[in-house]
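Lecture 7, part 2: worked example. A protein chain together with zinc ion.
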Amino acid sequence: MDKKYNAAKAGANPGKYLERCAAALDQALDEVPAYRSWRQFDRGKGAHIDERYAGLPALTKRELNAFSPAAFIPPGRSLEEGLKSGEIELVETSGTTEDKVANIWYQPWWNASELASWALNAHAARVTTGDQREAILANPLNVGFRSELGDLPMEKRRLARFLFLNDLADPLAWTDSYCDRMLKEMDLFMPVTLEANPSLLSRLCRYVLRTGKRAYQPPLIVLTYEFPSLIHRRHLAAVFDTPIMSSYGTTESGYVFIECEHGRFHQNVDYCRVDFLPFRDDCGGPSLGKLLVTTFDNPWRSLIRFDVGDLGRLEPKPCSCGRKAGMTLALIEGRTANLTITPEGRPVTQAQVDRGLSTISRIDDYELRQTDESSYQLRIVGDTGFDSSSAEQAREVLREIFGSNARISVEKTRDLAPGPSGKFQLVKALFPLNPASFLDPRFRPPVPEDSAAGGGP
Ligand SMILES: [Zn+2]
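Predicted complex, written out as C-alpha cells:
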C-alpha cells in the first residue's frame, strides 16, 4: 500500500487531550452510523470521559469490514464526492482475508499524524523534516514496487521522496549481488532516514557482517511493519552506529507509539487516545494488556476503541526523556495473533519468547510454532558456531518460559521464509486461542447485541 508514501504535508493541531477524547466520542455516538448500537452503553455526558470509554465495546477489524466505509464517516461528507474529487481514496490493508480492511485514505491526516509522532524521539525530531530523503527496505507485498526477477532499475523504484530498495517478494531469492545493489543504492541515494522491516534489514546486515563490506550510515533508522526481534536489533547494531527507533502504528490508526531515545514507547497524544485492557493477574497482568486506539480529528473516519490487535507492557516509572503526555509503554509485546500458551493455559507473548532466545548469541533467526497445547517446535537459523550445545541452550530457555510440561523440539534449518502476507511470523500457535479470556473481566468490553460481528476482541 503506497499511499502513505505520498509527500504532502499537514500541520498538527494539538488540543486538550480529554476534551479531544470527549469530542471524538460525542461525535461518534451522536452522528456516526456505525456506532448507533453503542449508545446503550454510554454512561452519559455527566460521567468522567475515561469511565465513558471504559464502558464501551471494542471495534474489531471484522466490524470495520461488516459496515461500509461510509458508515464511519463523520457528518457533512460524502464518500462518493470525496472519491470523485480525489480528496480521499479507498485502500485495502495487506494481510489474510480476515485481516483485510477497506480504509478511507486521507493523506493529510496521515502525514500530520506522522509529523507529530517524530517529536517523540529526539533523533527523529532532529533529522526529519517531512520531506527528507527516505529509503525503504520492506517486502513489496506490503509496500513499494514488485518484480518477479528483482530487476527493476532504481528509477522505477522511486516515488516522491522515497526509494524502495527491495522489489523481490521472496527474501530467500536475495543473492550476494542483489544485496550489493541495495548497499550501492544507499550510497548513491544517501537517505536521511532508512525505514525498514527489521527482519529484512537484519538479513542485509548479516550479509554485510559476513562479507566485511561497509553500509552507508543513515542519520536515523526507523523499524516498522513487524515486531522487531532483539536478535535482529543485535545485527543492526553491529552494522550501524546510528540511532534506531521503533515506530508503532497501523494503517487504520496512524502513528500510535514511538520509541524515544531512551527506549520507551510514548503515545502520539495529539492524534490518538489509547485504552489499555489489562490481562488477569495470573495471565501476566495488570501491566500487560491489549491496546485499543481512538483517533482524533480525521475528518474522513471516526475510529473509536479500535482493537489494533497488539499487546503492550506499561512502564511504571517516568521515562528519563522527560515526556509525560499520554501512556508510556516499556515495550510493544507483539500481536495477540502471535500469543502462545503454556501447557497450563497461561499466555506467553512474542516478546517473552524473543527476550529468552535473544540471550543465545549463536541464533541468527528463529521460528517457534506451538502445534498443540503442550508441544513447541523451534526452528533455528544459527551462525557458523551454532552446535548441539546451542540447541540445548535454546531448549532450556523455552523450558523456563513454558514450564516442565512443555514438549519442545529444536531443529536447525538453513533459512526461514516469510508468511503469505510478506511478513515474518517468528512465533505463532497453530490452533486458535481466545485472547479475550486472558483479560481482566472488569475491563472486558461488552458486545452489542446487534453487533455486526457478534464477537468481541
Ligand atoms: Zn522517553
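The two ends are 25 Å apart (CA to CA). Residues 73 and 301 are 5 Å apart (CA to CA). Keep this in mind for problem set question 3.
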